[in-house]
Structure formats: C-alpha cells, structure tokens
Amino acid sequence: MAHIKDVLNSMDYGPAPEGNEHVVAWLETHKAGFGHFIDGKFTDPGAGKSFKVTNPADGKLLARVADGSAEDIDRAVSAATRAFKSWSKLSGHQRGRYLYAIARNVQKRDRFLAVLETMDNGKPIRETRDIDIPLVARHFYHHAGWAELLESEFPGYRPVGVCGQIIPWNFPLLMLAWKIAPALAAGNTVVLKPAEQTPLTALAFAEICREVGLPAGVINIVTGEGDTGAALVAHEGVQKLAFTGSTDVGRIIRTATAGSGKKLSLELGGKSPFIVFDDADLDSAVEGLVDAIWFNQGEVCCAGSRLLVQEGIAEKLYAKLRARMETLRVGSPLDKSTDIGAVVSTEQLERITSLVEKGRAEGAEVFQPSIAIPGTGTFFAPTLMTGVEPASTVAVVEIFGPVLVAMTFRTPDEAVALANNTRFGLAASVWSENISRSLDVASRLKAGVIWINATNLFDAAAGFGGYRESGFGREGGREGLFEYLVLGDGKPKGKTAAMGALVAAPSATAEIVAIDEVDRTAKLFIGGKQARPDSGYSYAVTSSAGKQVGLAGLGNRKDIRNAVEAAGKAEGWGAATAHNRAQILYYLAENLSSRSEEFEARLRAMTGASKRQAAEEVAAAVRRTFFYAGFADKHDGAVHSTKSRHVTLAMNEPFGIMGVVCPDEAPLLGFVSLVMPALATGNRVVAVPSSRYPLAATDFYQIVDTSDVPDGVLSIVTGNAAELAKTLADHDEVAALWNFNSGVDAALVDKASSGNLKPVWNGGSPDWQGGDAQGREYLRRATQVKNIWVPYGE
Ligand code: ADP
C-alpha cells in the first residue's frame, strides 16, 4: 500500500477493491454445481453434462453449470406451458405485485448482484453497481406498472404464450431484465437461456423468483451453449422468441423459425457512428467517447465504435482523446476506480487482437496509451485507430472490444452518408451545439436510437432496438410491450365473400399468352407508368365460372427490381409533410369513390360476387382509404418519461420501401387495407395483388395516376404471387414485407428475408370487412420507432 505522503504527491489512485466475500460464500454453497431452474426448482447439478464458468479477470473457476439438453428444454417448456394457464389469467394488478416484489429484491441484493456480475463478466464494479443493477430494478418497477395498466392501455391484446429468450454475455442480468420484465407484465411465461460465458446472475435471479413466491414454471432458466439455444428455438411449444446476440446467430434463428408462426424479436449487432461536428463542445465529446467505446470494454452492441469527425477539428479532437486515454485505468474489475475491466473470454480477446492487426495491415494508424495493463487475465488496452478508410475491415465489422476507429467528413450530408454506410442500424450519437443541425441529422440517420450530445443512455421507458441488420422489435417503453402481445382472440377468422376455389399460382394454372397478340392486357404499374412485363407474357384471368375476363401481365424478378428501383427514387414521400400525404390519399379516396360502379362490375365479373357483395366491398375499400387518409397525420409518436432533463422523442418512422403481398379474398378491399396504411405512414410500396383476381388492383392504378401520388410511391406488379413474394423477400432494398396471401408459403418468405433481416408480417386472413383488418395495428406494423434522446440544461 502506498504511503499517504506519496499518494498526495502523485495524486494517484490507491487500490479500492470491492469486497466479494458474500459472493465467494454463495459460490461455495454451490460447489457441487448449478442445475437448471425448472418449474420452480433447481434440477440436480450432477444429472447431466456440465461446463465451467470462469472469472475472465484471473481465469479462476467460479462454478460448474449444467449444460442443457433438448430434454431439459422440453421439460422447461412444458412447465412454462402449464404455468401459462393460470399466470395469464391473473389480473394485471396481481402480476404487477410480483414484478414489484422482484424489483425490491433486486434492490435489496444489489451489491451482491453487482459483485457477482463483475466476477462473471469482467466488467468494472463501477458499472455493474451504478448502471447494470439499478437498471435491472428499474425495468422490473417500470413493467410492474405496465402490468397494472395492461387491460386499460392495450385493449384487445392478449399474451403470446411461452416465450423463449436467449441472451448474450455483455449485460447478463440487464438483458435478462429487458426480456423477462415485459414478458411477465404482459402475461407470458418464460424459458430463458443465458450466455454460456455468464450464466451466474441468471441463476441468482432464479433464487429471487423463489423468494418472492413467483408461481412455479412462470420463469425457467436453462443454462447451456448454442445448441441449448437452438433446441429452445426449435421447440414447438414456444410461441415467441426474443434474441439478443450476434447478427449471424440472429440470421440462423430467423431461418430456423421460418414459417413456424413464432413471434420473433431480434436485437443484433451494430457499428454505431459517433458524429462530431466542428461546433461541438469537444471536451464533452471526449467524455462521450469514453462512455461510447470504453464503457463495458466496448462490448456493447450499441457502442459508438465509428468516430466520424468534421475534418477541421479532427486533429484537435484526436489529441484531446489521446490525452484522455492516458488517464484511463485498466485493471481489476472489482476495483472501484477501474475504468476498463477484462474482456469476457480469451476467444474474444483473440478476435479483438486480430482485428486490430488487420486494421494496422490495412493502413490505419493505431494508438494505445502508455498505461499499465495487467499481465494476466483477458485485458486489452483502449485503442484509437485513425486514418481508417470507410471500406476497411475495422470500419465495417463489429469488433466488440475497446477499439475506436476514426474517419473524417466535410459536410453534414457526407456525415449522414458515412454514418448510414453500414448494414447495421442500432444507434448513433450526434455532437453539435446547433440543435437544429443535430435533429436534422438525427432524422436522417437510419438507426433505432439516437443520442444528441450524449451516448449510451438507457431507460425502461424508452424503446431500444435496431433498423436493418441490427434486428427488429423494441425492448422497453410502450413499443416494447407489443413484442409480448398479440391482437385479437387468436381464433381463425372467416373469409370475406364466397369467392370460389382459389388458385395461388397463375403460371401453374392459367393460360399464358404472348403479350404482343393482345392489347387488352392490364399492364404492370411501375414508377408511375404502365409497364409491359419483362417476360413479355400475360396470363388469363378467369371468373369463378371459368370464363376469361381479362389478361394480366406476368411479372417476374426483373419487374420487382424495377419497381424497387423506382421506389428508391421516390424518397420524398417519407420526407413530405404528413398533411401533404393526407391530402393525396384523400384525393385518391375521392377518385376511388367516384368510380365505384366500375370497380363493382370488375369484382362481379372476376369473382362471381353478388351485386350486394361487390358493392359492399367497394364501399368498404373507399371508407378504408378515407380512414387512412385521415390517419396520415395522426400516427403520433411520444415523448417518453425517461430521465430528468431529457426529452426522449419516440418517432414513428416509415421503413422506407415495403413489399405488400395481397390476398385473393377481397381482391380490392384486401389490397387497399394493406397498401393504404403503408402509404399513409410514409412508406413506398411495391404491391403484388391477388394472383387470381388481379384486375381490381390494376384498375386501381388509373386512380393512382389521377390522384397526384408521386411516381414510384406505389408500384403494382401482377403475376405469380409466390414467386414475386420471394423476390421481394430476397431484395435488400425492401425494408419490410407483409404477406397476406394464403397461397404464399410463409416459410419461404421468412427464410428469404433473412438476408437483410427484414421484418415480415405473415398476417393470415383477417375478416377484411371487419375491424381487425383496419386500425392502429397496421400503422404500427408499417413503422419502426426511433428514439431520439435530447438532454438539456447546462
Ligand atoms: P455473441 O457473439 O455476443 O457471443 P452469440 O450470438 O454467439 O453472441 O450468442 C448469444 C446467445 O445466443 C448465447 O446465449 C448463445 O449461447 C446463443 N446461441 C449461439 N448459437 C445459437 C444458435 N444456433 N441458436 C440459438 N442460440 C444460440
């Protein structure tokens, strides 16, 4: 121990270790190993295979933990299924009481949990004590409140059922809380698999569940590795999967669940930009960078790992940053003055090391401060890489370590282009003293969370989640609750009108005609113009009585690509004022209304519907178009109540380009019910109408043509719905896909969409005339929530 006089002279930190005796004692009582927590009890730790859990800071063994088999998963899912029957029937108030009790118990044991987390993960005690564990308690308190309010705030919604939840090692207990709290509040039961590197706080949490008397089976914890997770993903008794982890595994899960109908939320990787403009407060920005990339050793999915700095101030900022890096303390995670702890595992350390070497080889200048790094354990020095090219490996891939890569830009437009030049879209940080510039940039960034002059702010009241390959779904806030709820009673719905037998694929059943021979063919509608299908063929549309009533273009992959390209040029639609969109949709509704009779005749000829049925369908389509025109400027966001002196804006943003595959039932009403909410919220749409009855939709483009809808905002491609849906699902520029065509295989669409991880809504067959084919759920599904955090004050 340094003498007090020396300390005063050097003003250096002395050792400040946090005591861990209580955790060591707890681990000692589990010397025989930890079993799984299933049906309210721990299983025999000696019953099956097990694996070791070590402290990454010193490599010492902490515990042996059971390695879950498919049978263990099966038993846990059965327990959760049994528990669901009574848990879901409890009132929200009753469930809320349990959540409050959990929150209180977490607070009561906060020091124990913080120390255990630090020992298991290697992250500094300062962070587990001040961030992880307080946020865990906050999530349970917040969701206890949602449980109370569920019936009044989410009328018509019900819990999904058994939720399988798979979490990573970087925020073990916090990720558990993010997943379990909303699941329970909404009335679901859970089987959770923690990461193999860090399962211990989840097991301590299981003890808390027992202490508060949570009914058996409501929470089940099965420990294990990737194959245990895969067994949970595959289990038929699971109705919802929530995953946080790597994009690669997210993609595997998307593919594995394709067509299963399981509700899915994915929170995946990131390469988040940290943008510093020349009018930023540079000292604050430097502290922001410390939090952005050296918090949790940079093992943070939303880490600000890509520094984009305006050219004129780059060298100044780098100099300040390098000076600050010299004062960072890397060392024992249990020391209260440690800034950067141990990386979670030797594998992770090797990955970080090799990526930094790769960056160096690719020409980056690598800076590491001359600070002491412990000789043993998995420690890595804070690292700044400058002179990085936007296309170099370290600028593109997620390093998941304490490594910052820096690039420069000249103008705000260039900053936005560089920031968005990534497959990911989880978070971004914008630094400027000019609020209008900051908000302008925030609105143009394609990411789920934006922090203005701040970084890594989290709160249970605000949604967290990504755009693009960072996944879909939100955790936290009102928007996060929807992930654990489904609308309606879950019973299959009737079809609208008696339309006769349906066929899905015109190419298999219909007469294909070379297009040159006829001029009555309804063309495709692409980029605001009628277009001949690339194939040069059309197909015969026959009535239910077998009579040919017209010809429709046989669209193919090329036509979809053209439509998506045209949509890409119509970006102005999302940026237009909502009022402007509303006016255009009103005009569209009026034009549809004035041509009702033509549409009625068309429907009757195609489908054999009675006069009354056809009139009803057209009238409903007109009303629905007005409905969404009315809603175009009313799908408001929110200001979340997060921390004090923060405005946290939850903005409903359009996806961009959406694919919409329409049903055969209600050929006009189904089309309108899907296309209108997507357009009203600012998306551009490539629609595939009913294959069998496409002509109501092709007539519709005459309405579009005369209603001031800008070119490319709505394209209509007729043909084989299954083939066209697959092309839409495959397409990287299509950001979201709705499939309501029962002839199109949901599995095929889900699988194909795993490329860019677009959210897919396989919507089934709602009663198109009824209330469940219209409303806020459609607007919600057509948008993604972007949370913009704006702290204020000096
Ligand atoms: P990371 O790179 O953060 O370790 P992973 O995606 O590998 O992220 O792991 C996150 C979680 O996913 C862990 O709990 C891990 O065991 C689990 N996991 C890994 N592979 C699979 C899989 N194929 N199916 C389901 N879960 C998996």
Strand and helix layout:
Blueprint: H1 4-10, H2 21-29, E1 37-38, E2 41-42, E3 50-54, E4 61-66, H3 70-87, H4 92-108, H5 110-121, H6 125-153, E5 157-159, E6 162-166, H7 172-185, E7 189-193, H8 200-211, E8 219-221, H9 226-234, E9 240-244, H10 247-256, E10 263-267, E11 272-276, H11 282-293, E12 304-310, H12 314-325, H13 346-361, E13 365-367, E14 383-386, H14 393-396, E15 403-409, H15 412-420, E16 427-431, H16 435-444, E17 449-452, E18 471-472, H17 477-481, E19 485-487, H18 506-509, E20 512-514, E21 524-526, E22 529-531, E23 537-542, E24 548-553, H19 557-568, H20 572-575, H21 578-594, H22 596-607, H23 611-631, E25 638-640, E26 646-654, E27 657-661, H24 669-680, E28 684-688, H25 695-705, E29 714-716, H26 721-730, E30 736-739, H27 746-752, E31 760-762, H28 776-781, E32 783-791
Parallel strand pairs: 6-7, 6-9, 7-8, 9-10, 11-12, 11-16, 12-15, 14-15, 16-17, 17-32, 27-28, 27-30, 28-29, 30-31
Antiparallel strand pairs: 1-2, 3-4, 5-19, 10-18, 13-14, 20-23, 21-22, 23-24, 25-26, 26-32
